[in-house]
Model the fold of this input.
Amino acid sequence: MHAPNASVYGYECIEADRIEKFKNEAIFAQEMALAQSFVEQFPSTPSKPHCPITHSADVRPLFTKWGIPYFLCEASWTLFADVESGHVERFQRESEVSQFRLSSEYQADASLRRDTLWNRTLDWIAYKSFRYLAKNKGLSVIDFGNRYVGFVEKLQGANFCGQYNADNADICLSLDHFQSQTDPVRYVQKLYKSLKPGGILFLSTRAATGFDVLMLCEDSTLFPYEHIVLPSRQSLAFLLEQAGFQILETHTPGIMDVTYVRDHMRLEYETPPFLRCLLQTLSPRGSIELQQFLQKHGYSSYMQIIAKKE
Done:
């Protein structure tokens, strides 16, 4: 295994003009338009929502996107959409956006733009597998919910991957999949059962306590039938421990929060003056240091957890 990229494990310092563009803006706009069209065609019926992680009824509405209300459980800082599971299943299987994501255009663009990110992710898995399993070759791997053909090909060709989508696996991957679950408790139990004793879970997800999520709310890049449950570090750790996992590491290594907020926040008059000033005048170096602060203290909206099946 070659030396791991330090940026995966530490707090990155990236100049603004060197931040890699992971999204093709035209393709993302099409993706969002298709998602919005489906959600507005199949709206959910309002219910008496409970936090899907803590089951607490002590929640409050935070914002509405495309007619779907998002609620915040402040006891656990979990953000969730009030959706119907049948509509979510249809969105995932039959919607135009799900078909678009299978297209050669979408997959080819993802492979081109995300190649560096995927290599870093595989480095991260190999490095941490060696640390916690004392080996990083010939491991059995089960992969939940990955939608990128290019990443699957890289994963199957990685030195650490001996058997792909094996039962009773050494490694379980849940990369950007947790947030799309209507029943996260049951989902985490499924992850737990997929591993052999001592096996390692690598999980990444959007986080409710992320800077761009709570700052932008309905103007963020959330899709209501896809970003259904956004946990905090605390609520996700609670859920995993309840299922029998031991938490080994938690990080929020995102690099785009400040950029997203600066570029997309609507700076209306009611925005607090200090915040308007900060977003409009912060220097490039200041933006880097603010992003590093968010990474270091757990307030980036991209979260990674490594956990062990006890």
Notes: The chain is about 45% helix and 20% strand.
